[in-house]
Design a protein that fits this description.
Blueprint (H helix, E strand, L loop, with lengths): L1 E9 L3 H9 L1 H7 L3 E5 L2 E6 L2 E11 L3 E6 L8 E7 L6 E9 L4 H19 L2
Helix pairs in contact: 1-2
């Protein structure tokens, strides 16, 4: 598995962006068709297929970290919000993992999803 880190700049407030990364209603706007949560288990639904992820941790306005339940390894995916000191730009840093032969596909999927998020936010 290869660790992937991607950074995207947003013209949005930290609060608005964080809510789209850490809540079922926010995630269902851009990441999945629907998102349900019970305890710390998020169920992501795409075209009728479900995948479950455990929320490993979150900090208000900073990050949300998830682990797919069907993965037996130590991989995770994380959304982290950082404000650049010099420019004051809001950056979303995504950490994910992919098999070496699926790395490009994974990057393209995230880029597509982030384009959806930016469209929703008008950013």
């Amino acid at each position: 598995m290869t660790k992937i880190e991607l950074e995207f700049i947003f013209n949005s407030s930290e609060r608005i962006l964080y809510n789209r990364l850490s809540t079922p209603s926010g995630l269902s706007e851009w990441f999945a068709d629907d998102v349900l949560v019970k305890d710390n288990i998020f169920t992501f639904i795409w075209e009728g297929a479900e995948e479950k992820a455990e929320l490993l941790g979150k900090k208000d306005l900073c990050y949300a970290k998830f682990r797919w339940l069907d993965n037996d390894d130590d991989t995770y995916f994380e959304f982290r919000i950082q404000t650049h000191d010099v420019t004051n730009e809001i950056a979303l840093i995504i950490t994910d993992f992919a098999e070496d032969d699926e790395k490009q596909e994974t990057v393209e999927l995230w880029e597509s999803q982030i384009n959806n998020l930016k469209h929703i936010l008008g950013a």
